[in-house]
Write a structure and sequence with these properties.
The protein has helices at about 5-15, 25-30, 35-40, 60-75, 90-95, 130-135, 160-170, 195-200, 225-240, and strands spanning about 45-50, 55, 75-80, 110-115, 120-125, 145-150, 180-185, 215-220. It is of the alpha/beta class. Helix 8 links the parallel strand 7 and strand 8 (about 215-220).
Length: about 250
């Protein structure tokens, strides 16, 4: 049985490290069944009177099962499309959405598109990559399931900058559990580096990637080559982690 709305709010508050019902006495949490009955036998309650700090520790497998069921009910994935300016982020979003790609202007702010893909609803957030906008990327990190990092494979002069921005992104706490899909875009152009060369330059096998689920694919936003394969990997990776699989 799926947890009630109240249970979901309670669980979400734990994940966000918030303190639900902060004004209540700690003993009331159990005695008045604020904690759902099925959690009470697994809960370990710790309370420090002077600091008013407390935490609830549940059996990890039970909690993950509940969260997976909640996610299964939603069947929605939040995906950020990021990268330096002129990498082809908006073109990729429009191409997979089946929109015209012949007239695309630099993104000032963000674009949002929802589309159905392999039985899931993808909420794509295409955020501008200009230097003046990058400081605002953090405003979009909340509840992100996946990141699509788009690289201009022809722009060799900015690949080190691209690497630095990506590694900084991976260090953000709110993105720690997000799957990372790297698109080495513009493979249809002469002089483009291969996706293997891009992977080496970005140091995707280095320490910054430890603990992250990632993969890289060569693609062309203009022709569409490689996009399907990349999105397949991203959706499968996310769903295998946060959805209850049949």
């Amino acid at each position: 049985m799926l947890p009630s709305y109240f249970d979901q709010v309670y669980i979400q508050s734990l994940l966000c490290h918030e303190r639900p019902f902060d004004t209540m006495l700690p003993c009331m949490l159990v005695s008045q069944s604020i904690i759902p009955r099925r959690f009470q036998t697994k809960a370990i309650y710790e309370y420090t009177r002077h600091t008013r700090q407390y935490c609830l520790s549940f059996g990890i497998m039970g909690l993950l099962t509940i969260l997976k069921k909640v996610k299964q009910k939603e069947k929605e994935l939040r995906v950020l499309i990021l990268g330096l300016d002129n990498a082809g982020k908006t073109t990729i979003m429009k191409r997979v959405s089946g929109e015209d790609i012949h007239e695309i202007s630099p993104t000032v702010g963000f674009n949002i598109k929802s589309l159905e893909f392999n039985g899931f609803m993808l909420n794509l957030w295409d955020v501008g990559g200009q230097k003046s906008i990058r400081t605002y990327w953090r405003n979009y990190f909340e509840q992100t399931d996946g990141i699509i990092w788009v690289v201009d494979s022809v722009d060799r002069w900015r690949l080190e900058e691209c690497k630095a921005q990506l590694h900084d992104l991976l260090g953000q706490e709110k993105l720690a559990g997000a799957s990372l899909l790297v698109f080495a875009n513009k493979q249809d152009l002469g002089g483009a580096l291969s996706y293997q060369e891009i992977a080496d330059i970005l140091d995707l096998k280095g320490e910054a990637m430890e603990g992250h689920h990632w993969s890289i694919f060569g693609c062309s936003a203009v022709t569409g080559n490689g996009l399907q394969t990349g999105f397949d990997w991203l959706v499968n990776d996310i769903s295998s982690r946060i959805f209850m699989m049949a």
